[in-house]
Write a structure and sequence with these properties.
Number of domains: 1
Protein name: Porin
CATH topology: Porin
CATH class: Mainly Beta
Strand order of the largest sheet: 1-2-3-4-5-7-8-11-12-13-14-15
Keywords: Signal
Mean pLDDT: 87
Number of strands: 15
Helix content: under 10%
Organism: Methylophilus glucosoxydans
Length: about 220
């Protein structure tokens, strides 16, 4: 009986770790570091944080973006990430996150900048959904964004194997051109990383924009 409970508990913990990685969590496990980056035509971003305890992480972040007919603005700052609520469901996991940074904007806009956001995600081993709202502000600047992602895995894999997912994202950004960005992507997920390759607004012909997202936990 004790052995059966031990095995069941271990399987449950492994499933939760796997789900957290699959959901592109905003932090790693306790006493870990995480590097996240997005590289695309319309904006570039990277974040490096450290989780001293479960549910909290602090780090540094930099993002670069430009509005309609404007030169680029770069925001550099100190970032905090925290879990507001987590639900461990029978075969899935759901989370509400707070993430935000305070720092300095330079370029087309200059001055104190802040980027608070809320994110909700839920995922099983085969399905995934995310909704996120983010304020991106500096003096006279408003690049507020909202995004929805949905996806599915092609098949289930073991804990140490790479799992392929198809993910579709729809994102809006105020004062940006294009204001609506639709990105179909292929996401490859392992226990300590994910890589995502997509194309934003592929129907635009020569105006389409390749995009790369990556996350590494170490």
């Amino acid at each position: 009986m004790f052995k059966q409970r031990y095995v069941a508990c271990g399987a449950f913990l492994l499933s939760q770790i796997s789900l957290t990685a699959h959901a592109a969590a905003l932090m790693g496990f306790e006493d870990s570091a995480m590097l996240m980056t997005e590289i695309g035509r319309y904006n570039q971003e990277w974040m490096l944080n450290y989780s001293p305890t479960f549910g909290h992480a602090i780090g540094v972040e930099q993002m670069r973006m430009s509005g309609k007919g404007e030169q680029a603005t770069t925001i550099s700052g100190i970032n905090y990430t925290g879990i507001i609520k987590r639900w461990n469901l029978p075969s899935a996991q759901a989370n509400v996150w707070f993430n935000g940074s305070v720092g300095e904007a330079s370029g087309h806009y200059d001055g104190f900048a802040y980027t608070p956001s809320l994110q909700f995600d839920v995922e099983s081993t085969r399905l995934y959904f995310l909704a996120k709202a983010r304020m991106i502000r500096a003096p006279h600047m408003n690049y507020d964004t909202a995004a929805v992602q949905a996806g599915f895995s092609f098949y289930e894999t073991g804990f140490n194997e790479t799992q392929p997912w198809f993910v579709m994202e729809v994102k809006t950004m105020r004062n940006n051109d294009p204001s609506v960005q639709v990105t179909p992507a292929l996401r490859l997920i392992n226990k300590n990383y994910f890589l995502e390759f997509g194309v934003t607004n592929p129907w635009q012909g020569e105006g389409f924009a390749p995009r790369l997202n990556a996350m590494f936990v170490f």
